[in-house]
Amino acid sequence: MNYTYIVKCADSTLYTGWTNDLNKRIKAHNSGKGAKYTKTRRPVKLVYYEEHETKNEAMSREYAIKHLTRKEKEILIKGNGNLCGSWMVKGDMIKAGEFEKIKKLTREAKELAE
After folding, report:
1. Based on CB atoms within 10 Å of each CB, which residue in 70, 72, 77, 100 is the most buried?
2. pTM (2 d.p.)
Protein backbone atom coordinates (compact mmCIF):
# COMPACT_ATOMS: atom_id res chain seq x y z
CA MET A 1 0.00 0.00 0.00
CA ASN A 2 1.13 3.56 -0.72
CA TYR A 3 0.11 6.68 1.14
CA THR A 4 -0.17 10.41 0.60
CA TYR A 5 -0.03 12.26 3.90
CA ILE A 6 -0.01 15.66 5.56
CA VAL A 7 1.84 16.38 8.79
CA LYS A 8 1.55 19.47 10.93
CA CYS A 9 4.95 20.75 11.99
CA ALA A 10 5.87 22.29 15.34
CA ASP A 11 5.67 25.76 13.75
CA SER A 12 2.11 24.95 12.53
CA THR A 13 3.12 24.68 8.88
CA LEU A 14 1.84 21.75 6.83
CA TYR A 15 4.05 19.32 4.95
CA THR A 16 2.72 16.92 2.31
CA GLY A 17 4.51 13.77 1.22
CA TRP A 18 4.05 10.19 0.07
CA THR A 19 5.42 6.88 1.33
CA ASN A 20 4.87 3.14 1.24
CA ASP A 21 5.31 2.83 5.03
CA LEU A 22 3.43 5.54 6.89
CA ASN A 23 4.57 4.70 10.44
CA LYS A 24 8.21 4.45 9.41
CA ARG A 25 8.02 7.74 7.51
CA ILE A 26 6.50 9.67 10.42
CA LYS A 27 9.18 8.27 12.73
CA ALA A 28 11.82 9.34 10.20
CA HIS A 29 10.42 12.88 10.12
CA ASN A 30 10.49 13.06 13.92
CA SER A 31 14.02 11.68 14.19
CA GLY A 32 15.36 14.29 11.76
CA LYS A 33 15.92 11.77 8.97
CA GLY A 34 12.83 12.72 6.98
CA ALA A 35 12.51 15.61 4.55
CA LYS A 36 14.83 18.59 4.81
CA TYR A 37 11.77 20.80 5.38
CA THR A 38 10.62 18.94 8.49
CA LYS A 39 14.09 18.44 9.94
CA THR A 40 14.06 21.85 11.65
CA ARG A 41 10.32 21.85 12.37
CA ARG A 42 10.03 18.86 14.68
CA PRO A 43 8.06 17.29 16.11
CA VAL A 44 5.54 16.64 13.37
CA LYS A 45 2.07 15.20 13.85
CA LEU A 46 0.20 13.17 11.25
CA VAL A 47 -3.06 15.02 10.54
CA TYR A 48 -4.23 13.41 7.29
CA TYR A 49 -3.52 10.46 5.02
CA GLU A 50 -4.95 8.60 2.05
CA GLU A 51 -4.26 5.06 0.83
CA HIS A 52 -3.34 4.36 -2.80
CA GLU A 53 -2.76 1.15 -4.72
CA THR A 54 0.29 2.39 -6.62
CA LYS A 55 3.27 4.65 -6.09
CA ASN A 56 2.23 6.74 -9.10
CA GLU A 57 -1.22 7.37 -7.62
CA ALA A 58 0.30 8.46 -4.30
CA MET A 59 2.81 10.74 -6.04
CA SER A 60 0.12 12.29 -8.26
CA ARG A 61 -2.04 12.98 -5.24
CA GLU A 62 0.92 14.49 -3.37
CA TYR A 63 1.45 16.84 -6.32
CA ALA A 64 -2.22 17.83 -6.32
CA ILE A 65 -2.33 18.47 -2.57
CA LYS A 66 0.89 20.53 -2.69
CA HIS A 67 -0.86 22.88 -5.11
CA LEU A 68 -3.80 23.51 -2.76
CA THR A 69 -3.89 26.61 -0.60
CA ARG A 70 -3.48 26.21 3.14
CA LYS A 71 -7.20 26.81 3.58
CA GLU A 72 -8.01 24.07 1.07
CA LYS A 73 -5.63 21.70 2.87
CA GLU A 74 -7.33 22.48 6.19
CA ILE A 75 -10.71 21.65 4.64
CA LEU A 76 -9.28 18.37 3.38
CA ILE A 77 -7.83 17.61 6.83
CA LYS A 78 -11.16 18.31 8.51
CA GLY A 79 -12.73 15.80 6.13
CA ASN A 80 -15.30 18.12 4.62
CA GLY A 81 -16.00 15.97 1.57
CA ASN A 82 -18.96 18.14 0.59
CA LEU A 83 -16.59 20.88 -0.48
CA CYS A 84 -13.81 18.77 -1.91
CA GLY A 85 -15.77 15.85 -3.30
CA SER A 86 -16.05 12.59 -1.41
CA TRP A 87 -13.70 10.87 -3.84
CA MET A 88 -10.89 13.11 -2.59
CA VAL A 89 -11.40 12.06 1.01
CA LYS A 90 -11.41 8.40 0.01
CA GLY A 91 -8.03 8.92 -1.65
CA ASP A 92 -8.80 8.27 -5.29
CA MET A 93 -6.21 9.59 -7.71
CA ILE A 94 -6.60 12.96 -9.39
CA LYS A 95 -4.96 13.03 -12.80
CA ALA A 96 -2.80 16.09 -13.43
CA GLY A 97 -4.99 17.26 -16.30
CA GLU A 98 -8.09 17.23 -14.09
CA PHE A 99 -6.58 19.14 -11.20
CA GLU A 100 -7.30 22.70 -12.38
CA LYS A 101 -10.92 21.82 -13.16
CA ILE A 102 -11.33 20.24 -9.73
CA LYS A 103 -9.68 23.20 -8.02
CA LYS A 104 -12.08 25.59 -9.80
CA LEU A 105 -15.10 23.49 -8.82
CA THR A 106 -13.87 23.34 -5.22
CA ARG A 107 -13.56 27.13 -5.06
CA GLU A 108 -17.05 27.53 -6.52
CA ALA A 109 -18.44 25.11 -3.93
CA LYS A 110 -16.76 27.05 -1.13
CA GLU A 111 -18.24 30.31 -2.37
CA LEU A 112 -21.70 28.74 -2.36
CA ALA A 113 -21.16 27.44 1.17
CA GLU A 114 -20.19 30.86 2.54
Report:
1. 72
2. 0.71
